[in-house]
Structures are given as C-alpha cells and as structure tokens.
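Dear colleague,

Following up on yesterday's call, I've attached the two folding results inline so they're easy to grep. Please treat them as preliminary; we haven't cross-checked anything against experimental data yet. The first protein's sequence and structure tokens come first.
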Amino acid sequence: MLVGDKTWDVIVLVEYPSSKVFLEMVNSPEYHKAHVDREQGLERTVLYATSPMGAGARFSE
C-alpha cells in the first residue's frame, strides 16, 4: 500500500530528464491522443512527483 487505503496491482516508476521535458510531453497532441486509450484501460492512475534523495540519504524513521 502506498498512501491511503487503496491497493495496487502494478506500480510503475518513470524518470524524466527534467520537469520541463515531462510537461512538454503531457501537453503534446500525441500524448493527448494516446492518453485517451490509457484512461479507458485503467481504473485509476495516480502521479507522485518525487526528487532523488542523493547519495547516502536515508528515509527518516
């Protein structure tokens, strides 16, 4: 379980070169055309934007 009380079948991690590249992608006509199929094929999707923690970083307990 990630956040909340939802269970997940699949989790996908994706890294983009920058937030600018990601925003350009999601605003492109090609993405919008493909996104229709994605929305119809999935019950729900959630996007969690994150940043690298850096070398030697640890989660706080």
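Below is the second protein, in the same order (sequence, then structure):
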Amino acid sequence: MISFSSKGVSVLEKTKKYTDSQFLISDLLEKIAKKNQGFSSPEVLENSELLTKIDTFVRSHSQKQYLVILGIGGSALGGIALQKILARNTEKNIFFLDTLDPEIIEEVFQKISLFSTLFMVISKSGGTVESLSQYAFFKKKIEDEKREISRHFVFITGEEGFLREEGEKNNISLFDIPENVGGRFSVLTAVGLLPARFMGIDISSLLLGAKKMAENFFCPDKEKNLAFQFATIQYNALQKGITKNVMYAYSNKLFALSDWYRQLLAESTGKKFSQEGEMIFTGITPLSALGVTDHHSQNQLYMEGPFDTLLCFLEVEKFSSKIYVPEDGYTKTPLSFVQGKKFSEILEAEREAAKQSLTLCQRPWISISIPSLQENFLGQMFLFFEASVAFLGEMMNINAFDQPGVEQTKILTKKILQEKKREN
C-alpha cells in the first residue's frame, strides 16, 4: 500500500490536523456522489468485459511494430505516465503525439512504417481539433498507400460525436469512454488501459491497486482515509496563502506522474465561481520538480523565496537497481563519504537532507511513498490523487469536474481559424 506522511507541515503555526478538520468524510462523499462521477466506480475498476475486449484487440494487432497515440491533455498524459513508469514491451515503438508541433509530427511520420502502424485516436467529445487534425493527416497517408483505414486505426471516444460517427462509417474498432468520467480522470478507462496493454503492462493488477485505494477513499475514518488527509492539508495550507504545490519526484520515472497530476490539480481547482455562483477566483498552482536534479536549480526558491509553497515529495521505497559507487581508493577525495554506497542510498540521503533543510527554513512539506514501481501500487497512486482532488473540490466549494476556462479557448481558436479561412 502507498503511504502518506504529513510530518513536514508542523512548521505551519496552528496547522489543523486532519482529525480536527471541519469536514466530515461522509458529507463530502455524499456531495461527490451527487455529481455522478464514475472514476472510482465498480463499472470502471471492475470492468472484466473491457479487459477481455482489450486483450482480444491487442492480440489481433500483435504484428504491428508501431503504435502512435493521437490525443492531448487527459487523453495522453496518463498513458505517457504509464509508458515512462511501467512499459516493458521493448519490441514495439510507441509514440504519443500530444502536440500540434509540425516538426514533431513529421519526425514521427518519418520514423514509422505505415504498413506496420496502428493509430489510436483518443477524444471523449469526438471533436478535439488537435487529435482530429492529426487523424486527418495520417488517414490521408494511409489512403494514399491504398490501405484500408480500418486496419490501421482504433478510436477511443464518447457515446456521440464526429469520431464515433467516423468510426462506425469506416468500420473502425471503437472503445468507449464512460460519460461520467472526465478526460483528466480517465487513465483507468480504455484511454489508459488500451495503450498500457500494448506496452506489456499488467492492466488487471493496475485496476486491482486502484480498487484497493477506492475502498480507502470511501473509508469514513479520518485516520485511515489517505486522500482525505492529503486534501485536508492542501486546503488548510491554501487558507494560509499557500497557493502553490510542488510535486517533487525522487524518481525520474515518477516525474511523469507529476506531469499527469499537474493537469488534474490545475483544471480541477482553478475556478472563477463557487458552487453557488459567487465569483471567487481560486485555485492551487501545480509545479513539478525532480530530485536530485532540482536541488541545483529550484531549491533556492523553495528554501528562501515566498512562503507560498507546499512541497510534496514523491518517493520510491525500494528501487530494483542495486548499483553502487565502487570503493577504489577514494578515501581522501570528495568521494570518500559515498564510496561503497548504492546510488539509491545517496538519493535517499539527499532527499532527507532536503526535507530537513525545508523544516529549518520553516517551509511545509509532505511525503507520498510508493513501495516499488509496480502496477498495483501505481494504480493506487492514480486513484489516490483523483480521490484527493474530488475531496479538495468540495472543501473549496467548487466543481472539481468541469473546465469552463478551457472551453473558452477552444471557441476562440475555432473563431480565429474560421476568420483566416475567409481571408484566404
């Protein structure tokens, strides 16, 4: 089981413990339930029918050497995290095109062989302009080679929209995104599971871990509910003017998880209105840091900058690698105190030194620890963060499941492109 420590928030004067929280877990869960969000539901976490469908589909495309995922935001970040943390299938070349950068798109096109490529298009609305633009580009390339597009595409989308219509018209395989699961909460649906299965990841174990954390999410005991504890600390810190949360990953692989969490926290908490429609302009700004790399870049700011940041350490209890610094006559050199030490031991020492330094500088921090980089524990981690954001939204009295500010940009993008088309 992943673990959580709040020892580092003691530097905040009169900080409430989660046991003293004004909120009751049962009340918060009741409010969350009324929003009908399915990210922690049995329909998502115990969907054996989906797992069977995924296995069948992956076997039918086992000869494909390239997998190109066309998606952006919540349609890609979870899959990218899974790839960087857990991917084991080194036989396939897997690319996430979560960009409109023409140089990157063309680079991927040059690297793949169309005859041996499967394109996975992901969009819940079925109308995401970035993903559909990429789809149109690669579809044309496949058609130019006189190939059937149904053999080279799979769509993951909602119940309605252009993508579903296009899939049905062209006999393209379709996987569903549940209507009550938002994009940034969708990593444990086909959005994350289908790419993960191609990577050789044990998706059943991933879901079992998430299910275990979902049980913890519904636990009414404040001393046991990890997501509630984390959200309470974030909320109490926000009340003291701490508006930034740094996800400090002490594992290069877990750094990808902080990228995924950054969207989850930003889109869920950055809101103009309260649930009653009052204008409040609230939110928590998520930042990412990598230990020990950012000891030499960002730490100066966190140690001596504004008192507006909560540091969240992401830790791995047990690394699989046992490599160490050799003992080869370095006694009277700068290497004297690290010779014979495993790299994981040096990493841990620097992490603990960073915590102690933050405490001496009166800076709050917490730690979130994962036993090892395995599917079960990563599934727990995904659900833990999703659940904590759900709690946090109710504590902040905002809707953590919408993103009206994002929609405005989409509308204006369409307007700008239509005006340019008329000018041309």
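For the second protein, one point worth flagging: The mean pLDDT is 94.

Best wishes,
A.L.
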